[in-house]
Amino acid sequence: MSSEAIVSSRRYGTVELEELRQKFPAYFKELPCKCPHNEAYPQRLTAYRLCINQGKLTKDDFIPSNQEKRSKPLAPDNPSTYSASLIKDQCDVEKVMTYRSSFGKIPRKGTIRESHGFTRHSPSKSLNSHYDFWQYESAEPWAAFLLNEDDERNEE
């Protein structure tokens, strides 16, 4: 278990974390894996999300990986399949844009809050600052993201 997960379990307690898991979409209970990941927890995280909308952000900008259009299927037994990707560092965003630019996505910066869902640091060989984000069913994290670096938040 990561040190972040240990701190989280001390901060929230096992019972409270299990209660928070009830806020996720009902289909999570039917998955072949525990979703979100056991090491995920609610935390405040300022990061980037690659978004499809040019203007105001919507829930379509925060759909999980399993609902995105992809050329190859994702592993159904991997909890990350049911999360949205976040990238913490600008240099990793720049890397991603070189090989994902054909998707026409735009990096938007914002802060995921504890009230939005669970996150887990999930670095890869090429992206050290990648995080998985499982949002609560009724959360609206897109309201906390900037339209661009100079704009106000996406909120009305």
Brief synopsis:
The protein has 156 residues and is α+β, with helices and mostly antiparallel strands. The chain is 19% helix and 19% strand. A hairpin with an 8-residue loop joins strand 4 and strand 5.
Describe this entry's structure for a reader:
The structure is a single chain. The protein contains 3 helices and 5 strands. The protein has 156 residues and is an alpha+beta fold. The protein has one domain: Alpha-Beta Barrel (ADP-ribosylation fold), CATH 3.20.170. It has a 3-stranded antiparallel β-sheet with strand order 2-5-4. A two-stranded antiparallel ribbon has the order 1-3. β4 and β5 form a beta hairpin. It is globular. The termini are far apart. The model has no long low-confidence stretch (mean pLDDT 81).
